[in-house]
Design a protein that fits this description.
The protein is mainly beta and 219 residues long. Helices cover 5% and strands 33% of the residues. It is built from two helices and 13 strands, in the order ββββαβββββββαββ. Strands 3, 5, 6, 8, 9 and 10 form a six-stranded mixed sheet that branches. A three-stranded antiparallel sheet has the order 2-4-7, with no helix packed on it. Strands 1-13 form a two-stranded antiparallel sheet. The protein is globular, with a radius of gyration of 15 Å. The two termini are 23 Å apart.
């Protein structure tokens, strides 16, 4: 069972895109247990992929204010020298649905307006099938708050914690919140596109309000 703290975040200022995911996109459906690829390119806006540099890549759910880490894909990949990652979605991280997104979190490059926080980029929300997990009530409430969730795109965005959190469960039990990180069995991969197009966004962390709570209540 995955479990971890919830991090609440305030909506930040507009951010320029940088990492431009070309897979997954809004029409993408991935099947759990089958190898898939995350692909991206530079959109030629600031910051460049060279500036974004090494990044964590993960699967998340949530909204513009709260996001929950479900599966870690890579703890460190240089987005300037690499443009693709292969991984296998873990069936136990949640149920079938179209609420999943990929989040890129720079390990060194900081947000231009809030330099105490890392720069972020997101994919469009995409579908996972063949899933066997469940979300607890707080994670589901976070997902249901997606009307306030401008993930992917040149729009207001909010960032999750730099350490991440996990709040999905296996079919046998629902996830509960407690300090922790993604399961060691989870391979790595994390945001909703307002137009079902795939394009990254560097999230500004302006007005970030960290508050540890159990579960998730996001977008």
């Amino acid at each position: 069972m995955f479990a971890a703290p919830l991090v609440a975040l305030a909506l930040a200022a507009q951010a320029l895109a940088t990492v431009y995911p070309t897979s997954p996109v809004g029409t993408t459906t991935w099947t759990a247990g089958q190898q898939v690829s995350i692909n991206w390119q530079d959109d030629n806006s600031s910051p460049s992929l060279e500036q974004f540099g090494d990044a964590k890549v993960s699967i998340y759910v949530g909204n513009a204010q709260q996001q929950t880490l479900l599966q870690s894909i890579s703890e460190s990949v240089n987005v300037a020298t690499t443009n693709s990652i292969q991984f296998t979605p873990d069936a136990s991280i949640g149920p079938n649905g179209a609420q999943y997104f990929i989040r890129f979190e720079s390990l060194a490059f900081k947000d231009a307006t809030q330099p105490q926080y890392p720069a972020l980029a997101f994919s469009s929300k995409f579908t996972l099938s063949g899933m066997s997990g469940e979300f607890n009530s707080t994670v589901q409430a976070q997902i249901d708050g997606q009307s306030t969730a401008p993930i992917a795109g040149q729009t207001s965005a909010a960032a999750g914690s730099s350490t991440g959190s996990v709040a999905a469960s296996t079919t046998s039990s629902k996830a509960s919140s407690s300090t922790g990180s993604a399961s060691s069995t989870a391979s790595a991969a994390k945001a909703s596109a307002t137009d079902n197009a795939a394009f990254g966004v560097k999230a500004g962390w302006a007005g970030l309000a960290l508050s540890a709570v159990i579960g998730i209540a996001m977008f």
